[in-house]
Design brief:
Its main location: cytoplasm. This is Endonuclease NucS. Pfam families: NucS_C, NucS_N. It is built from five helices and twelve strands. By secondary structure, it is of the alpha+beta class. The strands form two sheets. The protein has a seven-stranded antiparallel β-sheet, with no helix packed on it. The protein has a five-stranded mixed β-sheet with strand order 8-9-10-11-12, sandwiched between helices. Helix 3 runs parallel beside helix 4. The longest helix is centred in the last third of the chain and has 14 residues. The radius of gyration is 21 Å and the shape is elongated.
């Protein structure tokens, strides 16, 4: 992972166009190829980003940009959509790289873990004739919450959240891109399942071809799983 603090401006072109004027920001270039642009605020959410599969090319600025003080251009292009993120670097204040190694993934607890377990026992919530392949299906970028099979033999990857937002959709998108490369799993479709799904997440999910399912936690708890119980 490369961490760069720089004075920069950022332009995103593609399905949406967006501009970030010149300011000091943190640029995070991850090992999976993604680039995230952060400010010193807004909690964990980046101001803009490009998700994999994508490539980063460092370019020498043209004469006009160089005259304006630009040192180099970072051009990040998405391999499938062609969307592009252009970062104009004016000054580098910090630049370090770190090898983080493989991450074991998020271990969930509380309601979210219960939702995953209950949904694994009641996969008919996702669709008729659907069967469970595995919980916490391992991938190189983390475990998929549930991997299912539909009656036609296709694969369904399910991301389970308590509250579903844009970050959860992005996470599932990365899983789908990776799983779709496996001929034993393809074709792979996605389901974003949560107790509550924000409107922006629903819009993004629809754009990505991901189906949203709202889960009734209390109702699911009231259905017996068939497992032995004391009471």
């Amino acid at each position: 992972m490369r961490l760069v603090i720089a004075r920069c401006s950022v332009d995103y072109t593609g399905r949406l166009n967006a501009h970030l004027p010149l300011a000091t920001r943190l640029l995070v270039h991850k090992g999976d190829g993604s680039l995230l642009v952060h400010s010193d605020g807004g909690s964990y959410k980046p101001l803009n980003w490009m998700s994999p599969p994508c490539r980063l090319d460092v370019e020498i600025p043209d004469a006009e940009s160089a005259a304006a003080g630009v040192l180099e251009h970072w051009r990040v292009t998405h391999a499938k959509s062609g969307d592009a993120l252009l970062v104009r670097i004016y000054e580098v204040l910090h630049d370090t790289s770190h090898e983080l190694g493989l991450d074991p993934g998020l271990r969930k607890d509380g309601v979210e873990a219960d939702l995953q377990r209950l949904l694994a026992e009641q996969v008919d919530v996702i669709g008729d004739g659907v069967t469970l392949v595995r919980r916490e299906y391992p991938t190189a970028i983390g475990p998929v919450d549930l991997l299912l099979r539909d009656p036609a033999g296709g694969t369904i990857a399910v991301e389970v959240k308590r509250r579903g937002d844009i970050d959860g959709v992005e996470q599932l998108t990365r899983y789908l891109e990776l799983l779709g490369r496996d001929p034993h799993l393809a074709p792979v479709t996605g389901v974003f399942a949560a107790q509550e799904i924000k409107p922006q997440a629903k819009v993004l999910a629809a754009d990505r071809g991901i189906r949203c399912v709202t889960l009734d936690y209390e109702g699911m708890k009231g259905i017996e799983s068939g497992a032995p119980r004391l009471f």
